[in-house]
Protein 1
Amino acid sequence: MSRKEKTVKKKSKNQWKAWLYLTPMLILLLVFTVWPIFNTVRISFLCRWNPDLGAIVGYNYSDAMNGAKYQFGINNFINVFTTGDSFLTALGNTMLLTVLTVPISTMLALLIAVALNSIKFLKKFFQTVFFLPYVTNAIAIGMVFAAMFGMVWPNLARPPVSVGIINTIIEAFGGKYINWVDSGSSYWANIAVLVIYIVWNALPFKILVLLGGLQNVDKQYYDAAKVDGASRWRTFWRVTVPLLSPMIAYVVITGFIGGFKEYTSIVGIFGDSMGPYGAPGKLNTMVGFIYDSIDNNQGKASAAALILFAIIFVVTMINMYVSKKKVHY
Amino acid sequence: MKVVLEHLTKIFPSRSKKEKNAEVVAVNDFNLEIPDGKLIGLLGPSGCGKSTTLFMISGLQEPTGGKIYFGDDDVTKLAPENRGIGLVFQNYALYPHMTVQQNILFPLQNLKGKERLSKEEMLKRVSEVAKLVQIDEYMNRKPSELSGGQQQRVAIARALVKMPRVLLLDEPLSNLDARLRLQTREEIRRIQRDTQITTIFVTHDQEEAMSISDYIVVMKLGVVMQAGKPQWVYDDPANLFVAKFLGTPPINVFKGKVQGGKLYIGEEDVFDVPGVEDQDVYVGIRPEGFLLSAEGRLSCTLSGVDVMGRDVSVVSTNGASFNPVVRSIISADELKNISGDTVRFNLKEHKVFLFNRETESRVYFGGQSAAHAEKLAEMEAEGTFHASHEGALPREADDKPKTETAASRKRGLFGRKKSR
């Protein structure tokens, strides 16, 4: 037997062992990840004529159990866009929040990471402070935010009393209170609160990644920049940012993906009505939209999930394409 | 530009709070006047403070004490970018995201005020420098697409583009392979000659320093041991450290003593040293200082011969030697004269150096002291740069005078001589 054959044989033997060790994890993945994905695609294309309602309805689990027969069709996708304007509202809210929060949180995280990297005194303390949101429950933070921005209406005859700390501060500086999140609050006030919350919540992970990247940057580049006479500002833009560009790209791409899946922040602040009191669904997002129909129309929910996937996929592709041009090595 | 270092001292504070006395004196009262337009090699073993000295000259590290002058300007407190230096880092520190051209351009783009050049001038300057270091074909490549030698040249170009008063190179050749190293050191020599910029480079490789420097400065524990033309330092070492540091193969060191005007190595009296006081000495003999002779007064036990072509290196052992083996280089023609287990040598007196066993400083004998004085006078007259350390040598805690010779090391674990 030649040596090559021997190594091939040895390899295949080892391969079986490798598969054996991988099996438990693969089974879990198949059951809880691969099958649901496959099933989502399948369900999204199932629909049937419901004579009781006189309409085409999407897949429903309990109906299917009771013997309803479904056919292949794209009705669910049409349904997503035609049932009221709630999907477009959700899409608009999601896009707006993503477009606002990703750049803001990335910039802030970069500045904070650079600052953290350059201080020695109290560094550990500040690191802990900035990482706190990462280990705190998002719903809990949301409720705290709701309290901070909140107001109280004891009765409708009297003007509202502001008790939230934010309005208290605004009034202490002589400003007029703003109805941030309560009944009758404006859309942009809601969005402002959400942006603040999401940015603050997204910071720790980004700071962590960027700080890790910064600590890996060879100090000699900074010495070289010093000898070359670069100002701190130029060093930041011409040396630090390009050297961090792979990390920044990573943070932006995951930020976009996370942004399109935004849901818990709205639930945390506004409850699962997805809007201030009296205006449910005003701040609904794509994931919220999916959850809305998951109980009685899994077909529509699946179709919406696929649409969300397609959007995230396209946006990520664009991100990758741009970062290939901008990320340097 | 002349560079003057006055009482330059660098003390690194103790890192841990527990050991308050763990501060490290990297450079200790360093005095040196580096002449204008020359290529100077700072040479020493790792940890001798040579890189620290370089970084203090560059301004990246602040001296704990002392002054640095460029010409007549005191630059001790100046920031690196205001000193007019070019610095080439050991691993080049080229910005990986910039092309060769952008890398070289970067220092020029940082210039402000009236120093700032127009865009065309900048590009012209960049292409001139690139031509000088012969990197102009690769202007649009990224550093990762270049070989080590080419990266090195880009780094030199980046250092030169601002037309520095002083060019500093930190271990410029240590990241290159052997062949490229030879080529690149010629290149550095050529660039330095072409530009006439005072160039200081740091190395631990004595051969590298000897071959291209106009002057070398040998350092130990932050102190100048000897400085001057490489050949002079090699031929007339001021102390044992310098003698041991220079030369390949390294100098052979023997345990010896001077008694009644005779020099003994072990029990053998090898030659007369009239006028030298009785004392214990180290005897340093350069490998080329041995003469094969049937009546030779130094006898060694032959253990092998390394043929190197023109010359051969005779490897032998001697009980009084501190080195495990005695290496002597003789002409290949003399090889036939070796027979039997014992080789006998006479010694060329100008290749033999004596050092006091306590202070490790040089003990001149015979014609050596006259030759030394003559050489010093000649260098004074020419104005040649030279310096040598006087007084006791700096020592590390564990660096005591050696008494253990190859013979005493051979004894077994329990102090008995190993029987065959």
Protein 2
Amino acid sequence: MDYVIEMLKIRKEFPGIVANDNINLQVKKGEIHALLGENGAGKSTLMNVLFGLYQPERGEIRVRGEKVNITDPNVANAQGIGMVHQHFMLVDTFTVTENIVLGSEPKKAGTVNLKHAEEQVRELSERYGLNVDPKAKIRDISVGMQQRVEILKTLYRGAEILIFDEPTAVLTPQEIKELIDIMQSLVKEGKSIILITHKLKEIMEVCDRCTVIRKGQGIGTVDVSKTNPTELASLMVGRDVSFSTEKTKADPKEAYLSIRDLRVKDVRGVEMVKGLNLEVRAGEIVGIAGVDGNGQSELIEAITGLRRTESGNIRLHDKEITNMTPRKVTQSGVSHIPQDRHKFGLVLDFPIGENMVLQSYHQKPYSKKGVMNFKNIYQKAKDLIAEYDVRTPDAYTPARALSGGNQQKAIIGREVDRSPDLIIAAQPTRGLDVGAIEFIHKKLIEERDKGRAVLLLSFELDEIMNLSDRIAVMFDGQIIADVQPEKTNEQELGLLMAGNSTEKAGGQ
Amino acid sequence: MFSNRLFNILVPIISVLLGLVSGAIIMLIFGYNPIAGFSALWNGAFGDAYFFGETIRQVTPYILSGLAVAFALRSGLLNIGVEGQVFMGWLASVWIGISFDLPMILHLPLAILAAAIAGAFWGFIPGLLKAKLGVHEVIVTIMMNYIALYLSNSIVRNLLSDGADRTENVAETASLQSTWLAEMTFYSRIHYGFIVALLMALVMWFIINRTTTGFELRSVGFNQHASKYAGMNVSKNIILAMVISGAFAGLAGAMEGLGTFGFMSIKSGFTNIGFDGIAVALLGANTAFGVILAAFLFGILKIGALNMPTAAGVPTELVEIIIALIIFFVASSYMIRWVILRFKKEGK
């Protein structure tokens, strides 16, 4: 067999945790090989071993059949291994070419000579259909283009094996399609690709074979043509996974949250919510569908007290909460799973245990007369960690050290545990794998069944269709349609989200 | 594997050792005997009761200014204005000390409290500007240092004296000086202030680590957005952090005004107590206990250095270089961390 990369029986330990154990990864020349696993399963660790950032405790790496010792990324580069990072490593104010040659600048009489490099970049760009302008400044080009610059960087350095670390996480659907074309043309030219991902759809679409890792263990390698998403998902999670969450019909009661004529301005002073009306009843999940930037964030910030409203009112159970402080809103029975969990949801440098009481630290039994009771806090934290299956070495571990899915589970544990009347979930599953998504969806439905009102904001139509009992379509600062998920489809929703009214959409 | 805790202790110790070794090398280069130099330093700090008393005297304000910087840093703020807050505290304590005639049980606490309030007020202004207008605290506090210096000079000359260069001595009822301690240490300037300093270290530890206020301050220091989301009042916490930090700094001023000197004189420049506090906090890893240890080290170096020219012929300036080197090595702790890890890897 003609393997270009072989990682055999790799084991990598970190203090208190085995990140990789007995993992085999064999990549054939000219294939797209998926590396699939949940968040925190050890995919990134394995790739960092291959890229020379970590040294494995056991196991060997072979490149083109020869055993090599990759001690640092320079060795990896010399072996023709290139990595396209998830977070781009680019200098904003430099041009594409300047970024590409950075670190190995072609010099002529002591000055940098970019002419030749520009030609090379142009040529590479054309050969692989990347369509990148070598003279453009990074800050002027789109995220998708920036990613191509990262790809060019590895190609310019002579990479034969490209590692893509969750490349589609930051892309729009259109850009994803283009990226897939690029990957296919790379393979056609004889390159090999390792694609790190937890998105099954992408694997089915572009990959030849797929290696699955679960909790640091190598599970096995399968031919993509001989498998299906359901099988892959259960390999990844270790049990059967359902894609559409089971739920009974909603039994909505009285209105919990009612918003009348709400107007909110954003940071720049531009009105983003323009006279919005919305009602969420107890025992139902209302999904807000809409294209990003139509005032969704401002709406949620206004409800939770993070942003002042201009006019209109927000009532919770007949109690006016308009322009209350976030703490008062919280104490009125609102829980908020924020869109950006790193910025708003957690103090990353605090232990995960202390993050569990971020809103309730000033109440009994977590403190008394201004003095913290850490014993009670960590007791509570341990209970929540167990109940919500937050995988962490212990409650004293900084939140930063947890994987995204586990951070999110911790936040959801904290928010749901307060027994709120209203749960606002903003993109609760962004960037998470199927296992975590399933868990979170289940929890939200459970809360609905307990008679709580749930307001869901998501940019994933699948999620909106799946979870909502009622879909409110938001466009240009207003709710322009209220539809039942059973009576609509993605096409109609798409038209509505683009600003077409119900009649027009229905009439087509 | 080293635990994080051990690491945090190990890094400053290695920094100090490296600083001392570099100091020895520099002494050798300039033709001085490092062994004689360091033993003169040691004797200058601990050689007899007088030197020991002076060392403690020097350590006292360092602890407080170190606590001031550390407290602000734990709340995510860089208080460069400790120097100015020391001036205000010093001024306020002396002012109360010379203007009232009260029994000691009222007078001394009042003078100390006044110092804390004056320092707190000098911290409140940059805190308010940061919280309400987003003005960076470093800029404001640097400016406030100069205002404090010239304002206190002017007040000493025009209000607290008749155009003289110094105030009269504070009343005995407001003094921290102690005949008993002085006699025991051959008339060094040691005073009761070190008890205040140690007490305040305990106070800082308690506030930061044990109270809800400290939890909020640290949370705001790490992540303002998450703190606001969680219902904390970010502006209030920024101001509070600067006020408490300023109060510690003001107390450092009181140590000088009521203890070491017993008066305030016109200054041609900064005392450096506040600026050294930045180094003390850094070396003490921003913890109360660490600050005490670091303040001792700085006090020993400062006082011990006075003995080096006479006993070993080494210029005092060299000690300044050694202190600078220690700070350099602490600031580059990343480098030391890296070296330790490297050694560990090879040891495996």
Protein 3
Amino acid sequence: MAEKVIQEEKRVFMTGNEVVAWGALAANAEIMYGYPITPQNEIMHYWTRLAPKNEREFLQTEDELSAGFTTNGGVMAGRRAFTATAGPGNTLMQEPISMAEAMRLPTVTIVQQRGGPSTATVIYSQQEVTLTTLGGNGEGLRVVYSTATHQELFDYTIKAFNTAWKYRFPTFVLADGYQAKMRESLVMYDPASKGIEMFPTEPFVGKEGTPGVDREPGHFRNTYNVEEELYDVLQEHFADYNKMTPEVAEYKEIGSKESKVVVIAHGVVARGAKAAVEDLRAEGFNVGFFRPVTLRPLAVPELREVANNADKILVVESANGQMDRLLKEAIYGCSAEMLSLFKPGVGITAEEIEARVREIV
Amino acid sequence: MSVQLAMPNCWRMESKPHKFCPGCGHGIVLKALGQAIDELGIQDRAVFGCDIGCSLLAWDFFNIDTIQTHHGRTNPVITGIKRANPNVIGVAYMGDGGGYAIGSQHLVNAAARNENITAIVVNNTQYGMTGGQMAPTTLPGQKTETSPYGRDVAKTGNPTLGPEMVSAITPDGAYVARGTVSNVKQLTKFIKNALENQMNGNGFSFVEALSTCPTNWRTNATDTWKFLEKEMSQYFTVGELKAPGSQNEEGQANG
Amino acid sequence: MGRAWKIALAGEGGQGVQSVAQILAEAANEQGREALYIPNFGVEQRGGVSVAYLQIGDVAIGAPKFQTADIVVALSDRAIHRTRKYVGPETVFVYDSGIEGITDDDLPDNAKKVFGIPALEVAKNELHPRVFNVIIMGAVVKATDVVPEEKVKEAIEKKLGYKFEQNPKLREMNFKAIERGAQLVAEAL
């Protein structure tokens, strides 16, 4: 991979799925494993067109269990490996992700949320927040970036690989069907040109030398014999996760710490929320905006500051309170009243948010 | 006759004696595997994946890079590694539940894609680790915890014939055999053939090993071997089912 | 802050509204403006009414969909009914006057302006049914001024240039269709 994929910065206009494929390429991702499901299919379509020209690999598996477990294998071989899924596929993906969580495997998973529960719609939702942040039979030891624009899809696809390999927690780029299918502009770049260094990868298995002779064998497991053994391992994971949190937790805001009403939204919904808040502020309303970029871990201290200063928080999401539950845990005991605008599986326009804010200011 | 070493070189002394029950066949299969690895000199390149079920007890068995995966998911993990690093010799080691029930879609598709990995399924006719439930390989009439009156094939189907299935769905180049822990020399040869087949880049290399589980069979030593040699081998035919070039050799021999 | 133009285009599957939206979005992007285009899609996408949501402005676009459009273009009776909800007091509503059985009751009564253009007829009689959607593109360009006609022609050239190479008459016909679409709107306004 001597040749740079993107020689110089260029403004492009494309769908979000195409952006992800380019982002993964720019991040020097080496292999994608995937299984078809709408609305993420075009990530595979673009990757399979770009991969052979850039010495990258692809494997279409028999299902998402296999896509997830082969991705686990790919990172254990020391490669920047990733997969992409949605909806019912994300449900299946939770099993391999829980292995990645247990064994600290730096997998990257792109999720293009669609309607739920079950098959629901192939279109759009923000209903995979609970699953992506806390899914599997574990403790949610993951990093989840919720993107809002194509520029962010590109930026955070690159960043996800670095976060995963640096901290060794499975990392997600959580987008949605709208972002997958819509077209807008962004600037693509070579990470190095922005001073972004790709965090080096390292094989878990297949290293140099004969195990037991030149080096210790790598023995990797996720099964423990006794309760205390598991407990001790988890304590280490929690400590690492807590140490990482202030370094990775991200948010964006507009006047959130000095406004009486603050709108909180994530992902594509945050675009409408931001537009609504900007309009209302231009009219002189005392309204702020807060957007968690990482849904896991959340920027808890900043959220608590907001929730202790504001009188009212309006949580807006295309789900029936999945982010709301995460927020409530984070700001437990804070003084703001929590209000909501939930439209599970349905897009939310700036107009709707503006109208709702006018009701409560 | 060659001198039988007590332990293959690639076994890890620190984890011996191993964790399997007395009379369990896993130790014998893993000895055959260890010997094959020694003979081929691939301890440095081998990556061993074990499943959930009794096979997981092999997670620190070898001085070989090892990954203990999930139930049924060892084939995709080893596939993922092999695809990402073709220099590795990948061994997916699992029981009959992992291979033929919960992981059957992975086995079928890895075989159909002719993945260049070696899969070993240890067939002891039931789920050992969970306490002896009926498996896809349970013999007709065989009593288990979930077929206490004997397996009723009218209700639960006939035992899965793994190698026959894999043989039917793999293209030329694949290697398929069924060995038994009652013939270690032959089993070692089959596993060695399977590993060599992968090293030659020929594709999916599959060995089922008929094995024993006196703990759940509730058999003494005599009855254990009787069940393996008389009951199981009657249903599951031991031998090579598919080997690259073997048809040609036969053709030449006949012609 | 300049608000983005909000455009909803709706028609039957195969009428080409998605291509219209995509080419307009690309033309605007080429011009250095901000554009966002999102199709509706679903498991029934091949059978039903196809809606394209297009926004063009000078600053980053907000939510990908919107409640009220500045201009709605509806190309079938079902599309007219489907898009009525995007109409507000500031909306210009354009429909094809060749759609059969449409009465005033079917058309929105809350729009700033409602008018029909004979795009289907012009396509069939003057040009070619295949460039029907290109006429619509010309109509949108004229009705909104979001992108100059020349940029749209460039975008079409980029998209279909390889076909035009083989058959230069196609280029002529497409560009003519743009111009005719613009004329139809000019006459109606």
